[in-house]
Fold this sequence. Notes:
Oligomer: homodimer
InterPro entries (chains A, B): PCD_sf, Pterin_deHydtase
Structural class of chain A: alpha+beta
Protein name (chains A, B): Putative pterin-4-alpha-carbinolamine dehydratase
CATH architecture of chain A: 2-Layer Sandwich
GO molecular function (chains A, B): 4-alpha-hydroxytetrahydrobiopterin dehydratase activity
CATH topology of chain A: Gyrase A, domain 2
Number of strands of chain A: 4
CATH class of chain A: Alpha Beta
CATH superfamily of chain A: Transcriptional coactivator/pterin dehydratase
Strand order of the largest sheet of chain A: 1-2-4-3
Distance between the termini of chain A: 29 Å
Low-confidence stretches of chain A: none
Enzyme class (chains A, B): lyase
Strand content of chain A: 15-25%
Family (chains A, B): Belongs to the pterin-4-alpha-carbinolamine dehydratase family.
Amino acid sequence: xxxxxxxxxxxxxxxxxxxxxxxxxxxxxxxxxxxxxxxxxxxxxxxxxxxxxxxxxxxxxxxxxxxxxxxxxxxxxxxxxxxxxxxxxxxxxxxx
Amino acid sequence: xxxxxxxxxxxxxxxxxxxxxxxxxxxxxxxxxxxxxxxxxxxxxxxxxxxxxxxxxxxxxxxxxxxxxxxxxxxxxxxxxxxxxxxxxxxxxxxx
Lengths: 96, 96
């Protein structure tokens, strides 16, 4: 899995409008809000199962009802299509 | 639940030798290493169930096989005995 090309990177804002670049890193992040910790952890569990299935693991940060995910491909040192595809799949079950 | 007294704070290094102060914050942190993500997430799930039972929720940070927990009592703006007791209970099931 290769790094995204400059053209692919330029298309990210349109393809993944809910994800943002991470300052100083080749990575994408999205924050999520929930009613309470139970809902946040249920979401984290969905992400965990997806991460195991894809063998691609986001950084997960949780504080009570808030979750932040950061996606990057450590093996290629930046963003790959694995990150894009994972972000798209997370968006299918994440709250808007 | 009140803030720890100065004497109680001074005893933390001895009472919780695996936990460290967080720079610039009234909080305690501990890092944990596991064989893989599955083991790390199993531990996070134990922490989540404990957090719900005690109604006291640590900050949780995870990257693949590593977990970091940060404990503080937001309601009193610093460390309370709730943090100390939770750290002690986490230590009973965490890897050394």
